[in-house]
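Action item from last week, closing it out:
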Amino acid sequence: MKRITAILLTLALMVGGTAVGQINIPGGSIKPPVPPVKQRLKPKAKAYTRPKNTAKQQVKYYDVTFTSNAYDGDLYIDGDYVGDANIKWTLKAGSHTVKVVTDYYNDYSTTVNVSSNKSVELPLTEKTDAESQYQLGINYYEGRSGFPQDYTVAAEHFLYAANNGHAKSQSWIGYCYHHGKGVTQNYTEAAQWYLKAADQGDASAQSNLGVLYHTGKGVPQSYTEAVKWYQKAVEQQYANAQNNLGFCYEHGLGVTQDYSKAFELYQKAAAQDDATALNNLAQCYKRGHGVEKDLETAFKLHQLAAILGDAAAQNNLGVCYENGTGVEKDYNMAVYWYQKAADQGDIVAKYNLGMCYYLGNGLPQSYFEAAKLFWETAEQGYALSQYRLGYCFEAGLGAEQNYSAAADWYRKAAEQGHADAQNTLGVCYFAGRGVTQSYTEAIEWFRRAAKQGNASAQCNLGNCYFDGMGVKKDRKEAVNWYYQAAAKGLAEAQYKLAGCYYHGYGVKKNKQEAINWYQKAADNGYHEARVALWELGH
């Protein structure tokens, strides 16, 4: 960590409750293999220049342009390296031997008789060996060495080399299928090619194959298999795999949960300047996972990863600024970093920007702009946005009030397991707002949210059991749910529980216990509890 520590010291000198942070999951950290930069040492070019004209000069010179399909071909004339092809040269009249040499095409030689200005085409044929095809694929994929960026052509070259057993090309064509680059996206094909390369020891393929098993794309979902392939790549010090295996240890996926091991793996990947790992390392410092909790270090690591361009880190840095976590609260800086992440398509950052508009934090307060961002990300399946958009429709904030639309969006979020949305959808069914009234449906959604520990749903479920609405009246069960919600600090549940103790509903009468719960509810601002205490002489 010496390198990271040095960077953090530099960052420390830099000037510079609604937000949602995020950790980089393996599915979001897939990277293509890193190709080596191939460099060819070239001899010093010989300057071909036309001599000055003199009265005695009898030799004639002509301008000759050599053209070829090589983007980086080296031109030799009469055995001397003169520079790149596709350039005009001035040659003495007579016969000349011309040769083009390039990494990706077969050498080409010809004899040119110069007797006038002319253009000479030097038709080259591609080398058919796997390594040359691989290098051509890299050049087309990345648009380097003068080649135009063309994923389709790149994929063709990778596929040719892959079919000839070239491991790096197998990994790359797998990546192309994985992400639909130059070919139709096909996870099964991606997995098959990754496996071929992985079996030859290619670390990037091993890591990416692990990701497919992790997410269940193209192969049966299996954290155990994911861990197996991550481990193989980790043994080669592959940063992506170190991060992904760290994620598995942090969350107990396919391995026994071990925060210390996760932290160690994140450190190793971060030491290789892996921005994804830096962000996850920051989350460890923020949560105290495998290391003593340190919000300032967490902030600095988020900052470093954000500067390196990691979208999740940019969003998390925005969260730090908005909430004042490890840094002085600054809504303007929060918006700046949310926007950076949103520009990369980060859904969570777009939601957080929407909340900034909603609350007027760092942006002019605008329900309309907030609703637009909620709509965009809700359409992409983000549950928090679906829930917020539902509320916008219900309350008529930034959108025309529409109870039916509100219920539809609550349902979408609820079906993804969003507890607040489940509870709110239950309320819609209970009141018949935007849906056909149904106590049975209300109970179902209250119960789903209550099982996740949602205090409001627990209290609502308690009310249903207390009055026998949608379920058989059972005040003992009502007390059970009131107690769970009251213990979480929900004032309404504390008040209801106090009433049960006072009157002996579902529990033995206990005036002092009733007073204790009334006091808790009153301390939480519940007016009816204050009235009850006054009536009891407290």
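Closing note: The radius of gyration is 34 Å.
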